[in-house]
């Protein structure tokens, strides 16, 4: 299920708004490439913080 600014994983709730937007974008892209949800979330958060 793709995430949005209104519906995103709990692990992204403490990110600032711009970082969270980027993390959502990255996570959705990874899901499209076939990554598992948990893996996509952790990679997306890590990459968005950089």
**Tally of separate domains:** 1
Shape: globular
Helix content: 55-70%
Low-pLDDT ranges: none
Q: Order of helices and strands, N to C?
A: HH
Q: Determine the mean pLDDT.
A: 95
Structural class: mainly alpha
Termini separation = 25 Å
**Could you give a short account of the major beta sheet?**
none
Radius of gyration: 9 Å
Descriptive keywords:
0% strand, mainly alpha, 50 residues, single chain, 2 helices
Structural account:
With 50 residues, the chain is mainly alpha-helical. It contains two helices and no strands. Helix 1 (17-32) packs across helix 2 (37-49). The protein has one domain (15-49). The model has no long low-confidence stretch (mean pLDDT 95).
Give the gist of this structure.
The chain is mostly helical and 50 residues long. The chain is 58% helix and 0% strand. The mean pLDDT is 95.
